[in-house]
Amino acid sequence: MALDALTRTAVTATLHCLTGCAIGEVLGLVLATWWGWATAPSIALAVGLAFVFGYAFTLVPVLRSGMSVRRAVGVALAADTVSIVTMEVIDNGVMLAVPGAMDSGLGDPLFWGALVFALVVAFVLTVPVNRWLIARGKGHAVVHGMHQGHRENSAHDDHSAHDDHSAHDDHSAHV
């Protein structure tokens, strides 16, 4: 089944979000489980780290493009907030819904199986949200709009001053 360009962009944007969210989510839940934390603080740490890593995955390449920190933070917030919130609500909801998942240890296959399942469900349900946002020029489209403006203002096609520009165009930096 071939996907249209908008859906492909939404899938890629969601993979970008999933990467940052998964790193933060896994790190947070692993640390909280290792430290023996209760469910609520475990989820708080995982969600907090998911936002940190999710925003960082947008912020770093945008900063490398030469954008000011203030503007880059605004771009990252505009590009990723709805996607990260959606993914985190779904992911943590699934983790809470799987009996015993939050109480299982790091050596328990239930912990890892539930976490992988939660991330897959979150990805599948976040793609349509990102597609809807991108179709309206919101969400990840903000990053693409920034790159479009960069291209229009550039006097050459080299883009050597913006190492990650081509990566954003083909989304390889988001996978």
Write structural notes for this entry.
The chain contains 6 helices and no strands. It has helices at residues 5-35, 39-64, 69-97, 109-135, 141-153, 165-170. The protein has one domain (9-145). The radius of gyration is 17 Å and the shape is globular. With 175 residues, it is mainly alpha-helical. Residues 8-139 form the DUF4396 domain. Keywords: Membrane, Transmembrane, Transmembrane helix.
In short:
This protein has 175 residues and is mostly helical.
Largest beta-sheet details: none
Rg result: 17 Å
Indicate the mean pLDDT.
Answer: 83
Assign a percent range to the helix content: over 70%
Q: How many domains comprise the coordinates?
A: 1
- In one word, what is the shape? globular
* Euclidean distance between termini CA atoms: 21 Å
Helix-strand blueprint:
Elements: H1 5-35, H2 39-64, H3 69-97, H4 109-135, H5 141-153, H6 165-170
Helix pairs in contact: 1-2, 1-3, 1-4, 2-3, 3-4, 3-5
What distinguishing features does this structure have?
175 residues, mainly alpha, globular, disordered C terminus
